[in-house]
# Entry
Amino acid sequence: MGTQNASKAFPVQEVVAVACAIFREHGYKKKSDIAYATVVSGESSTEVQKSNSQLIYSHFFNPQTWSANVAEQDQNTAKEIVEYLQGLSFKTMERGLTDFETNVLKFVTSTEVGKDSLGIAASLPKIYLNKLEQDKWEVRESELASHSEYLGVLKTRGEFEVMIENVRYIARTGSHLYCASVDGKHILKFFSDQKIADQGEKVCLSGYVKSHAESRYHGGKETMINRLKIHVTDPENSKKN
# Structure
């Protein structure tokens, strides 16, 4: 059956709806995550251990083994995802698309897709959620930028109590970019390859004021620090104790 269907094409909306159903029931797991988990545990691969792309392949090419339970909400979410991601074309007016964004745009602007594109579909629900969160951050960052002033003294160490506003993983550096606010209005940023705090948490830290600069993205004043030292996480509870 798999050989007969190898060249078959499927409607984009149907494929994305299946991806949504898998994401809703299983979350998102990459092939590399599954391989690592299998090696560490020493267990053979099971249905639960399959990646999203493996599950979507099973649904379309080996349904007698496994198929997704697609609900009406998955179909509605799929429509939202496709319409939203089609808007990536407007980003080309601001900057060039990455290779992956180009492939995503090609996928969501197609009527049908084949076997080679199912891996892209598997990641779309996760990408969609990430982009919605990024949209929220861009609005919040612009709000902060409208009244942000520089923090600390350039080329010296300073102490700051911050609210973590956004955390973004930077693949090329293998680290996280932490975007924080001081007093709810001044932008402070720093990189770390270690987990410091989650969005919405307060942190007391010190760092070397590396730069004061106006952002080329939002035009607001930003302070960048490095050589971090974390003093307290969740300082409000620490004061109570």
Notes: The radius of gyration is 22 Å.
